[in-house]
């Protein structure tokens, strides 16, 4: 079970959800390679482009982001995404106490715990390459997930 008891995590989550804040993403990392405790490592206002730049290819991390896009010429939408990042050079074999497990299985279990804290999102993005977080394809997925789309997407 992942430990998400760091109060800064919920504070950053609430900040991103607030219409009054410019903060639009947060990043959670494990405090060490052998720990199940997650901590808030960074927040930002530069959107997915900025988030992509701070992801570490050697880590497994979680991110939460607000994505703003135009639905048509006269309206914009804000949606939230949950990112499960397993970097292409992630070497950490995360272990459950007392037993060895596939690291992706452990991440999957921890993702369920993360979803209990970062509760409201439209889509989950499984990212293994930084290009998996390019804004355009994510907006297409958000439009499809959002239902009404008047631009043929």
Word description of this protein:
The chain is an alpha+beta fold and 153 residues long. Helices cover 30% and strands 31% of the residues. The strands form two sheets. It has a five-stranded mixed β-sheet with strand order 2-1-3-4-7, with helices on both faces. It has a two-stranded antiparallel ribbon with strand order 5-6. Strand 3 and strand 4 form a beta hairpin. The protein is globular and about 50 Å long.
Question: How would you summarize this macromolecular structure in one to three sentences?
Answer:
This protein has 153 residues and is an alpha+beta fold. The chain contains four helices and seven strands; from the N terminus they run αββαββββαβα. The protein has helices spanning 7-17, 47-54, 103-117, 135-146; strands at residues 25-30, 38-44, 60-72, 75-86, 95-96, 99-100, 123-127.
Keywords:
single chain; 153 residues; alpha+beta
How are strands sequenced across the largest beta sheet?
Answer: 2-1-3-4-7
Contiguous low-pLDDT stretches (5 residues minimum) are: 94-104
Q: For the CA atoms, what is the radius of gyration? A: 16 Å
What is the makeup of the main sheet? 5 strands, mixed
Strand portion: 25-35%
Average pLDDT works out at: 86
Secondary structure blueprint with pairings:
Layout (H helix, E strand, L loop, with lengths): L6 H11 L7 E6 L7 E7 L2 H8 L5 E13 L2 E12 L8 E2 L2 E2 L2 H15 L5 E5 L7 H12 L7
